[in-house]
């Protein structure tokens, strides 16, 4: 596995190199360009092509990736711990996964799909559809969170409390942290819905919010799918 | 799309013109006010950490003389001193303070791109500081687990503050990370999106480069601390066993089972090593600008400096386990991490050479900021070279528990960045307040701090080689391998430390006194080229640039250009304004 990680890192490195190398070979001290020159140069920083909020969201997604990546590596390290620590037996016992998780996953997929539909409806300028889909997206997300709480209950009732063992504890932590991120997204969703409900609101005013919510929703769906596969397979 | 700088779009909406005292100075969304709020808070909590270090030194130099310093207090002081200095002072000051102040001004923006989030970031940071301080007052006192908070001892009843203190610490760290993430998203997005016209990435001053890269490191590394803080809090409060092995406390077996303390160390240092560079990279960037400005010479090897910052940033993620050579991890790891550790010396050395070569044949003005910048080069080389010793496993193993390590990391990531902080404050204080800091007091501050630093830490190297163990409350006479001279040397270190601590009061006095009585500075007292010196008002008003944003035509280091009328050409001077000397621009 390590060799693949190294290979992947190398590949990413090469791509980044190609992306950056042109910019970094600029001889900044030799370019005393005129304003005319500035106006016509491609990639001039004055050109606003990407809204700052979108950049910030992508940077934030990188932060979340780091967070969940670290949780997952901690998961694996903790799972492997014990084999080599003297007594040779790991204390890791898988927990029985509550079947409701499948239902929750389907709900989260629907939520993401509804958000995507809202985003499409914005592009098509269908105001009523935007409201409907946006509302559905948030409602499904709330349903997902409720389902996750039920899953916690079921797990506790089947004897796997927080202190029952590392697998159970990780289950609560991973689902909890994921749920909190979705909850944060719902905060932004609520703000967007509130803005939609204002009479004077034009679709153009919520366009960016809906787009960013959709990207965030898809991303959290992806994170959940990774976590779900991880939980099911271990 | 037509040209429209972000700060100029939707102008009235974006800027939130302050209307009352409260919105101007307290709930301000102006990056400059937020920067000053960050700076004052960081310096205030830093004074607490300085006080704690004085108490520790009193105990070490004159053991058993101060009844108020019990062993458990000593460990609380160690813990809080380390954590405050690294995170709540240096990280907050460099990124929250200088990052906030310099990024929009140096990039030619009117403000950060998300001013409201910027304000929230500061208030959440303040909350983190308050929760941290609250740790002193909860039952059992602050945590005494050492700044690395290693389990299992961090939450076992033998350690001070093992119940509430540690929870305060972990909660405070988690809150800090939330604050930092809000600020960090702002800094990165502002640098990427809100630069003024003509300010390409490769025309940015190195200060902005350093702060930018440090922010990226922070955004990716702080989650590791967040993860470990959450899991340790659960271990401590709810009895999970993420990090806690089967263990007995006071003769009683506890309910923990099977956790991995080593996992915590991996997570902690996966954050902890990039943290060194989160503190160091802004210092590298800022010191480059100080040296260039005060030596009236362009920075040597600008592109190489940028590459080095990027290379150090990337490499800093693959060296973390060099803090763990003695942790009992797989010994084969040591080989890998020693190699990466030594590789990181290459870009670092490039930077040091470039600083020295910037000075070479420069018109060096030994102003106070310049003194601190040169002091930084000395101290950083000194601390950095001993890092080469400790980066090698066979040398590190005998030295890692001794004062050699204490001297190393204090010089390389404590004193070096703090010298840059001082230099930077002397350098930019005139822009922040419109008045110069007092020069004589500044020189007294520099020389006592600089010489005092060496009187403190050089003997510590010697004590470390002698084998004097660190983390000890007192070295009993019964430890026979410690000669009496070591105890004398400890007295010497303590007395030096008292002088250095006292002279910081002179600095604080200078900060306050100069605010009212300092010499008026004018807009550009150091004759700098970068944009922050070209603002229409000093201190810059809300929105920074008046009616029109600046346009940048050149890099940040046009000092002593042959044939030019003045020995500096600001970044926003258009080429046609230089017509009489136009022939001289084709130099190099």
Write up this protein.
The complex is a heterodimer of chains A (234) and B (588). Chain A has 234 residues and is mainly alpha-helical. Chain A has a domain at 99-233: Four Helix Bundle (Hemerythrin (Met), subunit A) (Up-down Bundle). Helix content of chain A is 76%, strand content 0%. Chain A is built from seven helices and no strands. In chain A, α3 runs parallel beside α7 (203-233). The longest helix of chain A is centred in the C-terminal third of the chain and has 32 residues, at 166-197. Chain B has 588 residues and is mostly helical. Chain B has a single domain (29-243, 259-574), classed as Cytochrome C Oxidase, Chain A, CATH 1.20.210.10. Chain B is built from 16 helices and two strands. Chain B has helices at 11-15, 21-26, 31-61, 71-107, 115-134, 165-193, 206-238, 261-294, 302-315, 331-343, 345-359, 368-391, 393-399, 403-433, 439-466, 484-517, and strands at residues 248-249, 252-253. Chain B has a two-stranded antiparallel sheet with strand order 1-2. In chain B, α7 (206-238) runs antiparallel to α8, α8 crosses α14 (403-433) and α15 packs antiparallel against α16 (484-517). Chain B is globular. The relative contact order of chain B is 0.10. The model of chain B is unreliable at 1-5, 7-14 and 581-588 (pLDDT under 50). Classes of the chains: A mainly alpha (234), B mainly alpha (588).
């Amino acid at each position: 596995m390590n060799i693949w990680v190294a290979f992947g890192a190398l590949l990413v490195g090469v791509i980044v190199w190609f992306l950056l190398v042109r910019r970094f070979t600029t001889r900044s001290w030799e370019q005393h360009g005129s304003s005319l020159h500035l106006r016509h140069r491609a990639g001039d920083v004055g050109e606003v092509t990407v809204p700052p909020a979108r950049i910030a969201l992508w940077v934030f997604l990188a932060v979340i990736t780091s967070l969940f990546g670290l949780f997952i590596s901690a998961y694996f390290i903790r799972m492997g711990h014990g084999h080599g620590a003297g007594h040779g037996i790991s204390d890791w016992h898988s927990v029985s996964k509550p079947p409701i998780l499948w239902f929750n996953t389907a709900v989260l997929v629907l939520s993401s799909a509804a958000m995507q539909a809202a985003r499409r409806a914005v592009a098509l300028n269908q105001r009523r559809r935007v409201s409907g889909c946006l509302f559905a997206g948030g409602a499904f997300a709330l349903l997902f969170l409720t389902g996750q709480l039920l899953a916690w209950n079921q797990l506790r009732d089947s004897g796997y409390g927080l202190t029952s063992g590392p697998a159970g504890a990780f289950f609560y932590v991973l689902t909890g942290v994921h749920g909190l991120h979705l909850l944060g997204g719902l905060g932004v969703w609520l703000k967007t819905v509130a803005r939609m409900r204002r009479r004077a609101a034009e679709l153009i005013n919520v366009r960016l919010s809906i787009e960013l919510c959709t990207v965030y929703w898809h991303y959290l769906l992806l994170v959940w799918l990774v976590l779900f596969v991880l939980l099911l397979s271990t | 799309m037509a040209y429209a700088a972000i700060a100029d779009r939707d102008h009235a909406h974006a800027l939130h013109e302050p209307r009352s005292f409260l919105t101007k100075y307290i709930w301000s969304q102006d990056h400059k006010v937020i920067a000053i709020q960050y700076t004052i808070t960081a310096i205030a909590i830093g004074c607490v950490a300085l006080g704690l270090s004085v108490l520790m030194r009193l105990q070490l130099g004159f053991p058993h003389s101060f009844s108020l310093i019990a062993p458990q207090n000593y460990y609380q002081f160690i813990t809080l001193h380390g954590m405050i200095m690294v995170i709540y002072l240096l990280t907050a000051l460099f990124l929250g303070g200088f990052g906030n102040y310099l990024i929009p001004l140096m990039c030619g923006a009117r403000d950060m791109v998300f001013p409201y989030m910027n304000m929230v970031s500061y208030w959440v940071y303040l909350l983190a500081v308050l929760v941290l301080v609250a740790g002193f007052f909860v039952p059992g006192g602050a945590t005494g687990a050492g700044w690395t908070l290693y389990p299992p001892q961090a939450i076992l009843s033998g350690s001070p503050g093992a119940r509430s203190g540690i929870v305060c610490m972990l909660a405070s760290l988690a809150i800090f990370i939330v604050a930092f993430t809000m600020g960090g998203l702002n800094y990165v997005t502002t640098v990427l999106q809100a630069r003024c016209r003509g300010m390409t990435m490769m025309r940015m001053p190195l200060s902005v480069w350093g702060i930018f890269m440090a922010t990226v490191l922070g955004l990716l590394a702080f989650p590791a601390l967040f993860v470990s803080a959450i899991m340790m809090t659960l271990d401590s409060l709810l009895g999970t066993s993420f990090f806690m092995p089967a263990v007995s406390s006071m003769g009683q077996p506890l309910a923990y089972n099977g956790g991995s303390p080593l996992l915590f160390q991996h997570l902690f240092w996966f954050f902890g090593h990039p943290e060194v560079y989160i503190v160091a990279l802004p210092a590298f960037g800022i010191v480059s600008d100080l040296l260039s400005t005060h030596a009236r010479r362009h920075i040597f090897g600008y592109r190489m400096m940028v590459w080095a910052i990027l290379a150090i940033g990337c490499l800093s993620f693959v060296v973390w386990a060099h803090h763990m050579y003695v942790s009992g991890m797989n010994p084969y790891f040591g080989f890998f991490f020693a190699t990466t550790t030594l590789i990181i010396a290459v870009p670092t050395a490039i930077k040091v050479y470039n600083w020295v070569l910037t000075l070479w044949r420069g018109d060096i003005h030994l102003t106070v900021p310049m003194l601190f910048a040169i002091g930084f080069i000395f101290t950083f080389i000194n601390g950095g070279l001993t890092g080469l010793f400790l980066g090698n496993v066979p040398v590190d193993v005998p030295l890692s528990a001794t004062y050699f390590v204490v001297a190393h990391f204090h010089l390389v990531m404590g004193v070096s960045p703090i010298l840059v902080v001082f230099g930077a404050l002397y350098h930019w204080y005139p822009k922040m307040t419109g008045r110069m800091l007092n020069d004589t007091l500044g020189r007294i501050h520099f020389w006592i701090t600089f010489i005092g630093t060496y009187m403190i830490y050089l003997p510590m190297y010697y004590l470390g080689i002698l084998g004097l163990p660190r983390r000890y409350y007192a070295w009993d006479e019964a430890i026979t391998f410690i000669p009496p001279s070591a105890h004398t040397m400890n007295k010497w270190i303590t007395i030096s430390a008292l002088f250095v601590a006292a002279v910081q009061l002179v600095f604080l006095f200078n900060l306050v006194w100069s605010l009212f009585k300092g010499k008026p500075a004018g807009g550009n007292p150091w004759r700098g080229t970068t944009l922050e010196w070209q603002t229409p008002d000093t201190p810059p008003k809300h929105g920074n640039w008046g009616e029109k944003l600046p346009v940048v035509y050149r890099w940040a280091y046009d000092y002593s250009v042959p044939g030019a009328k003045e020995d500096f050409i600001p970044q926003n001077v258009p080429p046609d304004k230089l017509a009489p000397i136009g022939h001289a621009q084709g130099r190099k």
